[in-house]
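Internal ticket - ligand job 225, S-adenosylmethionine:
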Amino acid sequence: MIPWTLLGTANIPNNGGELRLSQREDNFSIHLKGVRGELMNSRVHCSELALAELGCAHIQGTEKSKVLVGGLGMGFTLAAALKATSKSSQVVVAELVPEVIEWNKGPLGECAGRPLDDDRVLVHLGDVAELFETKQATYDAVLLDVDNGPEGFTQADNNNLYSIESLQAIRQALHPGGVLAIWSAWHDPTFTLQLKKSGFKVKTKTVRAHRGKGSRHTIYLARKI
Ligand SMILES: C[S@@+](CC[C@H](N)C(=O)[O-])C[C@H]1O[C@@H](n2cnc3c(N)ncnc32)[C@H](O)[C@@H]1O
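stdout (structure tokens):
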């Protein structure tokens, strides 16, 4: 068996631990050091694409739409958001870890077709939560995949993102009819209720990890009404 090669390490802000990028042939993995596990694997990305396809379905063909993707990871959701939106749209991608942006400028970037090179992309280096502080209606879609589900995994501070207060701030950052889409490795009915309490109309979709097979993931689709 060909061993994995460690390509890089990065400290996650706010004592989040260490993020590691490894490669085995054309397969890349981003994982958290120790027992915390894998955050992303390049072989398994169909549900990351579905996050953008489902979260941007309502703005297909719309001129000058604005989408926020948090975070970058391996760029699959970003690439799918660019594909799902018009040429006049803008896609902001928020990424907490500077090295993840650098890794995407290297060989890792090939996995999703180098979406960072697209002129429509604006990179925000920092916590995606910072972009909800203005509480101004700015985005038509917010696509969130920063943890493995609606609880802090990459860093403990991310727990706050899924609180009612934060979900209400995200709602304020959306235009009327805008959609908040959240990727999760599991389905949690309590979180659906939390979204409803925050003022969203909510649907969930089950999507497969790998071309119609593999693990079942959940996409929460929360519309601002
Ligand atoms: C699971 S990966 C995203 C995978 C991505 N959907 C893709 O298609 O490759 C999670 C990413 O979110 C970043 N991240 C974690 N917490 C964040 C936060 N609060 N703000 C911005 N980015 C964050 C991580 O560093 C990591 O790059």
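Auto-summary: Residues 31 and 129 are 22 Å apart (CA to CA). The first strand starts at residue 5 and ends at 12.
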